[in-house]
Design goal:
With 283 residues, this protein is of the alpha+beta class. 34% of the residues lie in helices and 13% in strands. Strands 1, 2, 3 and 4 form a four-stranded antiparallel beta sheet that branches. It has a two-stranded antiparallel ribbon with strand order 5-6. Helix 3 runs antiparallel to helix 4 and helix 7 packs across helix 8.
């Protein structure tokens, strides 16, 4: 979206966004801090700024404020802790806020032409923090609401966890696995990304399938050129860098899929340890 209007702003951790600043017109995004208990970021940062809204509640350490650039700047100036990362995002977008409402008819016209089919598994909405409705009219209305209401990703992860979900798969690349890990920190769970920006996609899909197999699921391994083992090995403890284990038992087998998975995890863990050790030495 171009032209005049409010500006969305995005910032991780406990505060909202600041420089670098972009063009003066249009919606602006800035990352904002996580809300304290019983209190939303807008209440703390956007007080007396009715034109600034919370557009994304991604995780305990990342939220997104959206509003006029000057108003967003005033909100971020209220963050006193210099250690809190924050910045104004270098793009214009009013998505997931009332600022997109004037453009909603165009999106609705597109939605109305899209044929719908009943999903084979429940599909959850980060707007309502509940499964999408079965009624087609209600579902299409919710698609419109999704464009002008906040993304409540943290809340939907908590709700899914309470419903029994323990393994979370991101289809493609992005930050969702990190948001899940931050939200569920200290609780048994797994996050798996099916896409990668740094390795061949087929290799990443194989890695993801091996991770799911190791957790007791049944991915279609032959479709990825892998051999299907008789049964997934029980885990004896957490895989390095992945999170707490979900089950216990004898030592894992040496099946090629398990070996490839554990080698990939070990490589990632070694890289993380190197970065952390370097940081500790410098600080």
């Amino acid at each position: 979206m171009r032209g005049g209007g409010p500006a969305p702003a995005r910032a991780p951790a406990r505060a909202g966004a600041g420089p670098p600043r972009g063009p003066r017109r249009g919606p602006r995004a800035c990352r904002a801090p996580p809300p304290p208990p019983r209190r939303a970021p807008r209440a703390r940062l956007a007080r007396d700024e009715p034109g600034v809204v919370l557009s994304h509640d991604n995780a305990p350490d990342q939220s997104v404020l959206c509003g006029d650039e000057d108003a967003v700047g005033r909100c971020l100036a209220r963050i006193a802790d210099p250690e809190v990362p924050r910045r104004v995002l270098p793009f214009r977008s009013g998505f997931h806020s009332p600022m997109l409402a004037p453009y909603l008819p165009g999106f609705s016209a597109v939605f109305d032409r899209v044929p719908l089919a009943r999903p084979s598994v429940p599909v959850w909405s980060a707007t309502t923090v509940a499964p999408y409705p079965d009624d087609e009219t209600e579902l299409r209305a919710l698609l419109n609401r999704h464009l002008v209401e906040p993304v409540r990703f943290r809340a939907v992860i908590e709700r899914l966890y309470r419903a029994g979900a323990r393994v979370f798969v991101q289809v493609g690349c992005g930050s969702l696995t990190r948001f899940v890990a931050a939200t569920l920190a200290g609780r048994p769970h797994r996050t798996v990304s099916a896409g990668s920006a740094t390795r061949p996609q087929l290799d990443q899909l194989r890695w993801a399938a091996a991770a799911l197999w190791a957790e007791g699921h049944a991915p279609d391994l032959p479709a990825l050129g892998l051999t299907t083992p008789a049964a997934p090995p029980p885990r004896t403890g957490p895989a390095p860098g992945i999170g707490p284990a979900l089950s216990t038992g004898p030592a894992p087998s040496t099946h090629p899929v398990a070996g490839a998975y554990e080698a990939a995890v070990a490589a990632v863990s070694a890289s993380v340890e190197t970065v952390y050790r370097t940081w500790r030495e410098r600080t």
